[in-house]
Write a structure and sequence with these properties.
Layout: H1 23-48, H2 52-55, H3 61-72, H4 84-101, H5 103-112, H6 114-122, H7 125-131, E1 136-137, H8 147-150, E2 168-173, E3 176-182, E4 195-203, E5 217-223, E6 229-231, E7 248-256, E8 260-262, H9 267-303, E9 305-306, E10 309-310, H10 315-344, H11 350-375, H12 386-396, H13 403-419
Parallel strand pairs: 1-4, 2-4
Antiparallel strand pairs: 2-3, 3-7, 4-5, 5-8, 6-7, 9-10
Helix pairs in contact: 1-3, 1-4, 4-5, 4-9, 4-10, 5-9, 6-7, 9-10, 9-11, 9-12, 10-11, 11-12, 11-13
Bound molecules: flavin-adenine dinucleotide.
Flavin-adenine dinucleotide binds next to helix 8 and helix 13.
Amino acid sequence: MRILTSYQPPHVERAGFDPDLSGEERTLVENCHRFARDVLRPHGKALDRLGAAEVIAKDSPLWTVYAEYQKLGLDFASLDELEPAVAARLESLIVEELAWGDAGLTLSLGVAGFPLLVAQAAGNQELVDLAKERIGCWPVTQPDHGSDMVDSYGVERHPGTVPKPGNVVARFSGGEIVIRGQTSAWVSNGSIAQIAVLCCPADYGQGVVRPDGIRNYAVVIVPLDLQGVSRGKPLEKLGQITLPQGEIFFDDVRVPKRFAICEGESGAPGFLSVLSVAGVFMSQTFTGLARAAFEHALAYAHERRQGGAPLIEHQLVRWRLGEMYKRIEAARAMTRRAAHYLRAAPAPHPNVSSMSKAFVTQTAFDIANEGLQMFAGNGLTKEYPLEKLVRDARSALIEDGENYLLTLRLGSVLSDLYKKGWAND
Ligand SMILES: Cc1cc2nc3c(=O)[nH]c(=O)nc-3n(C[C@H](O)[C@H](O)[C@H](O)COP(=O)(O)OP(=O)(O)OC[C@H]3O[C@@H](n4cnc5c(N)ncnc54)[C@H](O)[C@@H]3O)c2cc1C
């Protein structure tokens, strides 16, 4: 126990009550903060006012963001060389800081690096060279298969039903893979990507659906300048306007078999590995958004006067800020625990990442909503930042797996663990 000898305000960092940040960590946070404040936030605000086609137009501020991000020199793959706990905290600090500036842009910049990250993890130099300096995307969902695709093991299928092959299928034949079909319109970066890490049902010669009713999957790197690739219209939507989205069509697109990162029995686990990373990335991102909403509310409470005094002088307002903040710290703690688990656990699992994703995104939505309530009428207007944060957080409850479904699957996994002996003695 440490006995205090005098009262002092608590030690606090940008990302809250971290007791022991190193000098290097603090420097990195400050660099990311400057980028978030000076580039992501103002450009995010401007992009949010544009139509989907304008967001990706040649003269869009989006390309300034991409150019400035390159100068920041972040290298997420190099984190793998650090101790898992150190890497998990550093990665969480970086992403939270960026997303404090703009969540949609952080997601766009993050998913842009997914094909490279996967190629690096697979140790495949040819695919690393192919993915380097190209904007990436991660197509999974399809027009008729949203939650069905995220639930690749069919855990929540209705009893007695058999899955359909899917709207996008990769057919393996001889030395090549032929890809045919259409993704959903929700592919993040789908309208701007130059390369994809495609996770889709696969036919290895005996159909997509196996006799046990499970789909075969594959994880394949697909350059998007190949013959047969085309795009739909950029998607108009609620929230995360700064994250360009749209469907991708594959008309018998051919890639060499060696572009498959995971195939056969390793297809579905390979896909779930990417999903696990995405769940943690979402958690880190929406911790940042929640913090941004809180900080706006905190500042407003010190500026706005009602009832004869600044809002902050009213006890109820202080309680509301305290209530918001304690939930941010809980979300941050779960995020970092999931990030650490993914890097360090003997058997990481996508449902641990998605548990965190579901909790943190719901928390971020609640905090943004509470922040808007603090601004009251002003919060509803486009003059103030809260309505954008509410819209951005709202999309996250569905993005990368709809939250009820993710939580339902967590319950299924917990039941499986119980049946195998966990928590039942
Ligand atoms: C901002 C954003 C970014 C995205 N980025 C990507 C991306 O980069 N790549 C990509 O491929 N996709 C992406 N998506 C798509 C996303 O993964 C899907 O929207 C999500 O998985 C849900 O699928 P769906 O929208 O088709 O809903 P559906 O699966 O049709 O679900 C509809 C409703 O039915 C419920 N439901 C579904 N199945 C069951 C069941 N078995 N039991 C009980 N209830 C059920 C759900 O809870 C939901 O409320 C993104 C989505 C958003 C919003």
